[in-house]
Amino acid sequence: MAPGTTSRDPRGRRTPAGGGSVTVTAPAKINLALRVGARRRDGYHALATLFQALDLADDLTLGPGAPGVRVTLTGPEAGGVPAGDDNLAVRALHLLAGRVGHDLDADGLELVLHKRIPAAAGLAGGSADAAAALVAGDAYWRTRLPRPELVELAAALGADVPFSLTGGTAVGTGRGDVLAPALARGRFHWVLAFADHRLGTPSVFAELDRLRGPAGPGGPPVGRSPLIGSPARAGGPSPVGSSRVSSTRVGSTGLDSADVSSTDVDSTVVGGTLARGVGTGVPTGPAAGHPALRGDRGRGVRALPPPVEPVLPASVLAAVRAGDPAALGRALVNDLQPAAVSLAPGLLRCLDAGVDAGALGAVLCGSGPTCAFLTADRESAVALAAALAGTGVARSFHPVSAPAAGARVLSRRS
Ligand code: C5P
Question: Residue 358: which region, alpha, beta or left (left: phi > 0; alpha: psi -120 to 50)?
């Protein structure tokens, strides 16, 4: 940016010229629990989720360029990512430029996006790029926007963008964009299975609505346990204090027995709201091969109970707080998983393969199609990735760990 251009700080003062280049990194995320409530009037669904940022990240470099924003895509996951104005990072830069009074038509930007996070994979890759663009633009133009304003811009760009900005471990409510930090101990080690196809987030949410139906479950598939997948437990709201959690045990072929233990759970205050440890959907985790997820084995998921107020299971919060991977493996849950499986039944084979190969838990990442397998430590993750490499259930397997920091400046050249 040339001296004398129009960037201004939040108080309307002209800011020093940018120039040089800024490189920012921003993380992928995993939802350790994802509970989905009813569709809202604005088209979004009410969520309660526990996010953790992964040490898998995209890097974004900004430098001076021709008018507008010109994008160059690099990296192993660059294929199929839009390079035009529909790229979320480009939209983020236009939004930020509008806020700080920078004229991109006069002083444009060259943006190099190094993609390691696959697109449309449930890992918030686009959101990471948007968050990186906000941090990079703010640093490049030296606008020093107050954090709450950056978060507000992030939320306008997408429900997951505020978490990409924040990173760490956080509870998300609202659309998933209202964040409260959550306690976490130690590191969790995962294997991510990248699929060879994509799933659009809106279509997975729409499939969940379809499966839930307008008037109730209409004969949902049930599992072998009276507590898992049964309409009585999963279909309706439970009174505070009477809700129950169950844990499941798996054998080599998926779920062999369920309801190993069930305990009354405490009420947990999350982000100012009361979160009950109640299951409203179908447990995932090591129960990835549960008959309720398979529907009629091969014929897909037929129906699901209607939505209830989304609440986080106390078990997942406790496992993360304790840094206990075995407990977390049992507590993983994703209400979008049956909908994604309904659209892409091959995901069950992938989830089962991870459990069969010894994962402590398996869960779909966000709206999928990436599957995540939890392991006890880094060595186990590397071994699991190697064991899965020949199975053909996914395109590639990647050991990763969490938590990681949110979007941050890596380097700056003047
Ligand atoms: O916010 P973002 O653009 O990432 O969301 C993509 C789509 O995912 C939304 O348009 C909506 O269809 C769906 N979604 C939802 N409820 C949420 C988050 C996303 O229905 N809480």
Answer: left
